């Protein structure tokens, strides 16, 4: 047993060191990317399913590390949360996204809206309300053009401070969207306690609905619930016509997904938005 322990130790140490080394390099890289403003936002279009009009975009962070290459948000967002970098990062995302959208509204002469993701751990650890107000003032974007997305999981652990912030954000006049809906086991009571405007069905259900009976009935139940609560329903992760068909039959309001448009740099988003509609 002793010997096996030794082998295990010898076998795993280099891998562990490599993992913590990568983490350390990413943390330093993220710090410097924030200072040098080399993080990027991509924008994924959001369409009205009935009318086919472009209604806005979701801002999604992109980061290319000088040595490690493209690092996915699923890796660097948790790192930003652990290190506190999520605070300056979110401040930058909000100001950048609002500024771009204000510019596009002017150029296109249309009231498009912009969605920004908020980290649950950020909302739990501190306030984002002043940051949101600051971004609106700095950009000149009107509050009703900004939508803030929080995941359903936030509500499971929502304390007084989180509830108060959500309430204050409503008073500021921004829209609130509940993201990844269906994955966080939220009870209806949470939805009643915290007032949201938009419900985004998780892509897992959208993608499963055409072929999987369980996903289909969950999607239908979520759609019915959104309607009865007066929430706008967004289907995300839409990749094909079959999924569009299901969402149409359920009266889904807005759609987002590779079938309609991938997340793209701002200049591409603007060029596409100025062209013909895609739905
Ligand atoms: P999310 O908010 O649920 O964003 C949707 C994710 O699904 C994005 O991944 C998007 O690129 C991807 N997606 C969109 N349409 C499709 C589709 O048709 N098929 C498939 N397979 N995927 C699709 P991404 O950009 O990698 O972001 C992953 C997550 O990272 C986001 O999930 C969000 O939770 C987080 N994230 C991204 N940007 C930010 C940010 O600025 N702040 C915070 N706090 N979180 C962010
Ligand atoms: Ca989102
Ligand atoms: Ca989502
Ligand atoms: Ca999304």
Q: What do you see in this structure?
A:
54% of the residues lie in helices and 20% in strands. It has helices spanning 2-36, 73-83, 86-108, 120-125, 129-139, 152-156, 160-172, 188-193, 203-208, 213-228, 241-249, 266-274, and strands spanning 40-48, 54-65, 69-71, 113-117, 146-151, 175-181, 198-201, 232-236, 254-256, 264-265. With 279 residues, the protein is α/β, with parallel strands linked by helices. Helix 1 packs across helix 2 (73-83) and helix 3 (86-108) runs parallel beside helix 5. The protein has an eight-stranded mixed beta barrel with strand order 1-2-4-5-6-7-8-9, surrounded by five helices. It binds ligand C2E and calcium ion (3 copies). One calcium ion (CA) binds at residues 58, 117, 149, 179. This is EAL domain-containing protein. Residues 23-277 form the EAL domain.
Name the descriptors:
279 residues, alpha/beta, eight-stranded mixed β-barrel, 54% helix, globular, binds ligand C2E, binds calcium ion
Write the layout of secondary structure elements.
Blueprint: H1 2-36, E1 40-48, E2 54-65, E3 69-71, H2 73-83, H3 86-108, E4 113-117, H4 120-125, H5 129-139, E5 146-151, H6 152-156, H7 160-172, E6 175-181, H8 188-193, E7 198-201, H9 203-208, H10 213-228, E8 232-236, H11 241-249, E9 254-256, E10 264-265, H12 266-274
Parallel strand pairs: 2-4, 4-5, 5-6, 6-7, 7-8, 8-9
Antiparallel strand pairs: 1-2, 1-9, 1-10, 2-3
Bound molecules: ligand C2E and calcium ion (3 copies).
